[in-house]
Amino acid sequence: MKVGVFTSVYNDRGIDEVLDKLAGFGVEALELGTGNTAADKHVGLDELLADPAKAAALRRKIEERGMVISALSQHGNPVHPDPDLAAHDHEIWTKTLQLAELLEVEVVNAFSGCPGGGPEDRTPNWVTCTWPDDFARTLRWQWEEVLIPYWSEQLTAMRAHGVKVAIEPHPGFTVYNTESMLRLRDATGPEVGCNYDPSHFFWQGMDPFTTIKALGSAIHHVHAKDTFLDAGNVARNGVLDTKGYDRLSERSWYFRTIGFGQGEDVWRDIVSALRLVGYDWVVSIEHEDGLLSKDEGLSKAVDLLRRLRPSEPVGRMWWT
């Protein structure tokens, strides 16, 4: 199990500086943004597709520092009800698949997307309850007429490029929890899997050990990000919170560096559960902590993961 970092945390710095810094932290893998909400600051998607030699040079830079690319990330909404926005995000997705094949990267991270409430809408509609009946009808339409057809159509391209998608369950999108993730996978194919980010599960009340066991082989990639729940604010307002992330003291929850939200024991359980289901790829740190600097947050997260991760295969059990 390798310790990785999503490089978007250093979007204000050049790629060479980022590579040197992360290698110095002891990072072993990089997750690179290629566009949409995962801003393309370190890759140059169009430039690398136009010149495969430059793509090879980027991969060499990374490998020379003892690191690999865990995934390319292009978190967008390819089923957005505004056709122009949907077309833009779909184009980035398509180009990212091409670049993944060029770089020999097997995983592209994504969101499921969220359609509108019906064919005439121009803004997404995230349904969180089944009544009044309008919501139940909306949800059926979103799944049956938009989401499942879109991702089913993407299987051909994924297979052609030898790439899997890791969809990050995220509130605000149609796939946001364990059940919706498995529903989309069952309706499409095994290439459609999960980018498991427990930070979005914590505040919804889901247990990481339970969700990891349920997802099992559907987990294609993992984010390491924590969430702190402010018990007083939750008791007063619940967990649905639309206040800005600049108002941390008022929010019911906010993101933290791993170990600073749910505690080290929870992260020990997460690493153990991942091993239990056979996940042995990269755990990629995503720094979105408003209380720790980038450097401090990343260094603490790397140190914790390096301590907790298994460093060698299990082998034969003592009783065999």
What fold name stands as the CATH topology? TIM Barrel
Write down the CATH class: Alpha Beta
The global form is globular
CATH H-level name... which superfamily?
Divalent-metal-dependent TIM barrel enzymes
In whole angstroms, the N-to-C terminal distance is 25 Å
Rg (C-alpha, Å): 19 Å
Beta-strand fraction estimate? 5-15%
Strand line-up of the largest beta sheet: 1-2-3-4-5-6-7-10
Structurally, how many domains make up the residues? 1
Summing up helix and strand content along with how strands pair, one would put the structural category as: alpha/beta
CATH architecture: Alpha-Beta Barrel
- Helicity, as a percent range: 40-55%
Could you name the ranges where pLDDT drops below 50 across 5 or more consecutive residues? none
Instruction: Please provide the ordered H/E string of secondary-structure elements.
Output: EHEHHEHEHEHEHHEEHEHEH
The average pLDDT is 96
Q: Main β-sheet, in a few words? A: 8 strands, parallel, barrel
Tally of helical segments: 11
**Overall number of strands:** 10
Account of the protein in words:
This is Sugar phosphate isomerase/epimerase. The protein has helices at 15-25, 45-50, 52-64, 83-103, 133-161, 178-187, 198-202, 208-215, 231-237, 264-276, 294-308; strands at 2-6, 29-33, 68-73, 107-110, 164-167, 192-196, 219-224, 226-229, 253-256, 282-285. It has 320 residues and is of the alpha/beta class. Helix 8 (208-215) packs parallel to helix 10 (264-276).
